[in-house]
Amino acid sequence: MEVTRFAPSPNGALHLGHAWSAIVAHDLARNSGGRFLLRIEDIDGGRSRPELADSFRADLAWLGLTFEEVPAQSSRVDAYEVAAATLAAMGLLYPCRCTRAEIAAAARAMGPDGPVYPGTCKADPPGWGEAAAWRLDVAAALARTGPLTWHDALAGEQPARPDLAGDVVLVRKDADTPASYHLAVTLDDAADGVTLVTRGADLFAATHIHRLLQELLGLPVPRWHHHALLVDEQGRKLAKRRNSPALSDRRLAGEDGLALAAALRMGQLPGGIWLSSA
């Protein structure tokens, strides 16, 4: 009996890529007699638009997906702070004042999410009162945990390689966003009892970091299912920032959501959209 989740951020309308992701998670749960959860990830600072959550619920119902809603991220800020304090007490966090431009200029390697942070602020920490993010000292964390593995339902057993991403940010400099994606989603999935973390293949590399955080914080270890992505004619995944057509527009125009969901399940995609693993 799997527990899966769909966890959209209310910073833009849902599109077909979201529909595909939600359907995959929903069906994996339902086929096992399990539970499909909806979690609103609403801590993205000023970009979050609370009114979109109602549209998300309507979109899922329109597609014929039934769900249980769990607490939104904004209700869990205290838990993020406790976890960050725990890691800091273990000596595994350090402050960083570097900008993205400075990191790009100083980086000596590229990771799955871009330039790997070179550890500048380990040697030259920010001054007292200087605005700073807090990064995870991955080498120190791995020295504490030893080798780790995690299991993907499609790719099989994986050695955890959080070092590939470098010392990622766990607490952001911007006070309006109290935790990074890595910290928040790891804690949320544990709190919600998720047993199968279902998400796009573009987040495969993030799992290395999440597995490390689970070990450090004594959290249960789920399995993962990184599904293929819907992409456009240029091979780019559908995205809010590219103004991919909104599900709500299709819903309000009177399109049959159940028929759309059935077509997606059968691989019948609209023109100009393909299924890709990356």
Based on secondary structure, the structural category is alpha/beta
State the major sheet: 3 strands, parallel
Q: Which segments are poorly predicted (pLDDT under 50) over 5 or more consecutive residues?
A: none
Overall average residue pLDDT: 93
Give the H and E element order: EHEHEHEHEEHEHEEEHEHEEHHE
Strand tally is 14
Task: List its traits.
35% helix, Glu/Gln-tRNA-synth_Ib_cat-dom, three-stranded antiparallel sheet, three-stranded parallel sheet, ligase, ligase activity, single chain, alpha/beta, 18% strand, GluQ/Sye
Model description:
This protein is of the alpha/beta class and 278 residues long. The chain has 10 helices and 14 strands. α7 (181-191) crosses α8 (206-217). The model has no long low-confidence stretch (mean pLDDT 93).
